[in-house]
Design goal:
F-box-like_dom_sf, 463 residues, F-box domain-containing protein, F-box_dom, LRR_dom_sf, single chain
Length: 463
């Protein structure tokens, strides 16, 4: 009687599946975790205490992470955290469904990117279709991040890689190292992203975006060391509220190219370790929007020098002023390729760039008044002051297509400078050891001969 009653009680409270060995139960649950039910582990865990125990103690059941753009970013991030924790220490598969918007690729994947060494398989469906097997060589790093900002109607046009094949989201640069490529019509903002660990970001703008959106994205990149921004020449943002300040404590290299937002970008980043600044193709012959509230330095250039790009000269100079005042970075390299400033901005910068070793400028309208700033001088504060030079650590100077400079000024300034810095131990070798001058119309043959007598093999002249 006791045995019969126990059997009857058990049959009323247990399902036949409960009698299966735990190993078989796990296999069944693993089979249930497919993309047709991405939240299956949570559903299974709610059936009974036994099932919950099996689900929570079995990493294999959590190895498939399915994210889609129909869920909120917050819930997707929570799901990613739970699945990666529960599947530990196993590798996992990632599937991304972006049927609605490809701009969410980076926000959805951001919590998983620090764990790339555990990714086994990646696939995407919806706006883009791709898949990649990572099981043979699990990547340890994803760097750089390449962002192409496109018109929404152009997002699905495939970019071709070096071999003429569509470029996938992840491309292999070397074993265990991936590059991430994304295409968006607008940049995600920092609140939608788990802080990104990229040390290098390459961003290309082919539709108008405002500097504000770039800055709001950079808030999510605290480990950034190199930023390459290629813009599209359109009017800078007319500010109705102050721009946010993006703090980039580790940024060492900054490239800004082909944009009219130079002033806004340079004025709104904090880069205390910046050592290289490359400015390229920023000169424009049209007028840029002026700020609503001018600051010190916004007045017209007292030098009255000629300029073919007066508005962009002012924007570039004011942006650099703001960057130097905020961050006081130890710049060693300043390259200005078809990028120019006013005379007053060169004077301001040269007075503050005490660590600069390399200065290159091409297609500048700078006058003799700028090159004269490199001549040794005695401060006017009183007698007994020793001779000084601006840019005291300058070792490499390259001038290209600077046609407003005269040969007489170049010969006089450079000759006097090297005579001083070559002969004084106080400069500890920080003298010009390379001078390259090319396509500067004011430098004639006799000027070159005079310079060569002073500089010797340090001088290179190019036609």
């Amino acid at each position: 009687m006791t045995f019969l009653a126990l059997t009857q009680t058990t049959e009323t409270t247990c399902s036949p599946i409960d009698y299966l060995p735990t190993e078989l139960l796990i296999e069944i649950f693993v089979h249930c975790t497919t993309r047709t039910d991405p939240l299956a582990p949570l559903t299974l865990a709610r059936v009974s205490s036994l099932w919950r125990q099996v689900v929570q103690s079995s990493p294999r059941i959590w190895r498939y992470i399915y994210l889609d753009d129909r869920s909120s970013i917050a819930s997707s991030h929570a799901q990613a955290r739970i699945w990666t924790r529960q599947s530990y220490p196993l590798n996992f598969d990632v599937h991304l469904d972006v049927s609605q918007s490809s701009r969410l690729v980076l926000p959805l994947l951001s919590p998983l990117l620090p764990l790339m060494n555990r990714w086994r398989y990646y696939s995407m469906s919806g706006k883009r279709e791709e898949s990649v097997d990572l099981s043979d060589s699990l990547p340890n790093y994803v760097d750089p991040l390449v962002i192409v900002i496109r018109d929404p109607d152009q997002l699905e046009i495939e970019d071709e890689g070096p071999e003429g094949l569509p470029r996938p989201t992840f491309t292999s640069a070397m074993p265990a190292w991936l590059t991430m490529n994304i295409w968006v019509s607008e940049l995600p903002k920092a609140p939608a992203l788990v802080p990104l660990r990229f040390t290098s970001i390459v961003m290309t703008e082919s539709i108008p975006i405002q500097p504000r959106s770039v800055l709001e994205f950079l808030f999510a990149c605290p480990q950034l060391e190199a930023f390459f921004f290629t813009g599209w020449q359109h009017d800078d943002e007319v500010l109705t509220s102050p721009l946010p300040i993006a703090r980039l404590p580790n940024l060492r290299t900054l490239h800004v190219r082909s944009t009219c937002g130079t002033r806004s970008l340079l004025s709104s980043i904090d880069t205390p370790r910046l050592s290289e600044l490359h400015l390229a193709h920023l000169n424009v012959d049209f007028t840029l929007a002026a700020p609503a509230s001018p600051v010190d330095g916004d007045s017209d250039d007292e030098a009255g020098d000629f300029s073919r790009s007066a508005s962009s000269d002012r924007a570039t100079g004011m942006g650099l002023r703001a960057l130097l005042l905020r961050s006081d970075p130890p710049l060693r390299v300043l390259d200005m390729d078809w990028s120019d400033m006013r005379t007053k901005d060169f004077r301001f910068a040269f007075a503050r760039l005490g660590m600069l070793e390399h200065f290159f400028i091409e297609a500048s309208d700078m006058s003799d008044k700028v090159i004269e700033l490199l001549r040794p001088y005695v401060p006017s504060r009183g007698k007994g002051e020793r001779v000084r030079v601006r840019l005291p650590r300058l070792k490499s100077l390259e001038l290209s297509n600077c046609n407003e400079l005269s040969g007489e000024a170049l010969v006089g300034v450079l000759s006097e400078r090297v005579r001083l810095t070559d002969g004084l131990a106080a400069w500890e070798g920080n003298t010009l050891n390379e001078v390259i001058i090319s396509d500067c119309a004011g430098l004639k043959g006799d000027h070159g001969d005079l310079l060569r007598k002073e500089l010797g093999n340090r001088l290179r002249l190019r036609d």
